[in-house]
Amino acid sequence: MSRAASLLRTAFTTRLWLTVLVALALGAALGLAAPDAGASLQPLGDGFISLIRMLVGPVIFCTIVTGVVSAGALAGMGRIGVKALVYFEVVTTIALIMGLVVMDVLRPGDGVHADPNAIKLAGKASEYASEGEHQHWYDFLVNTIPDSVVGAFVDGNVLQILLVSVLFAIAVKMMGERGAPIGRGVERVGEAVFGIVKLVMYLAPFGAFGAMAYTTGKFGTKTLTSLGTFVGLFWLTGIVFCLVVLGTVARICGIRVLPLYRYFKDELLITLGTANYEAVMPQLIEKLERLGCPKPIVGLVVPSGYAFNSDGVCLYMGFAGLYIAQAFDIDLSIWQQLGLLAVFLLTSKGGAGIAGAGFVLLAATLSTTGTVPVAGIMLIFGVDRFLSMMRGIVSLCGQMLASIVVSAWEGVFDRERALLVLSGQAPAEDGPAAAEPAPSAAAAVGGNA
């Protein structure tokens, strides 16, 4: 009996990745064997994502406030923010360019010869297109400001929560010793919130099972048949981006990327099953701290990365934009593609908190340029769920490295600890050195690195 209890406990803790993997396989098998039954399990996946999303706001708030209050001078946090934004912009630009280049070279949309007049927007695609047509390049700046402090948390808009959290953290920091009790109180609340996250994660296999059963049941092999080449090419490019581009970034920081992905295997599999990488934000924050990234840096970089570092969305937008143009026999010049690139760089920053973000932002961009018909999104709507799986994985991989890059840039990345954790020589579940930054690391964050 004790052995059975031990196996059950490890199945949902240290071996959660294996349990999720089995759940994904069973969900896919059910969706293919009984599509209607699989599609009916959508509430399982959606319910799990909703449970995690209800905690995203408190996690961001507590993490940022605790990180800023425990750091050194505010000028140091400003410097970290600038470095993070520089890294975000560089990597997302590479993702966009990579998507455009692959599509220009391989041109999977040639031969489709779609007629824009014969394609009508319908259903969810119509809603996404309508929302996208009312989006502007500056919306992500305007929408950063919530109608009220509480409203930011009610709506779950990451950008708005980020703004409120940073302003509150700065205000507490400026209070000096009088603000210290507030910081400690928020830290305790944060510990309780992460406790809830651990409870919710016991449901991850059930959420992954339901989401995968729904995906294969509703969109299965028939949907993939006509656009299989496009989907396969996107997945292949996403894998190459994660291994080569992000692998190079990891090597610059002194670690190897494959052990890093193995360390985050639970989060990768959950993202694969649910097609939503926001669902793993709390675990991502905890694991990065255990890995050797100072808490103040993780607390600022991870939440802001969910708003500004969507590598997967950028890769997708380059891919989808050119595929639709090729399918309509629209030959975009290099200057037109550079124009698309510039617009993509702006609109891709507005995806935080938007349902169907990739589709909405793609529609917004196509509406802005006027060169490629917005109705073209119907050509890929049926396979968007499969595309969103890789979008989430690529974005999550970029999120893993962001805090490491900024920590290394600041000179406070505990590389020795990271190598021990990634090699399995140090326990991944205990991290006193990582969970609570050493005084020297916190001082370096606030000083001149």
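Next protein, fold it too.
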Amino acid sequence: MSDTTPSPQDFATTVDQLETIVERLESGELSLEDALGAFEQGVRLTRDAQQRLDTAELKVRALSEDSEGRLNVTPFADIESPKDDTDEGKETPPW
């Protein structure tokens, strides 16, 4: 693995690193060369983060689809919440 390739890390760490890079770039204190290097690192991290999001979306879809490829939506179990007098006369959401 080369020095320019980020090591595998969790998504939150990637986002934290991106935020740090953005702060450094916005500070205006970096030289042109350092700013370019930080930008390149940010692009790599952004692509890595997007790939992770895409992979997670595919996993969620695979777990949520039925055998015919339709989304299998299962509502949460009905949980009885305590009602008070202020709830009367108000519409409740469909979920």
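About the second fold: The mean pLDDT is 79.
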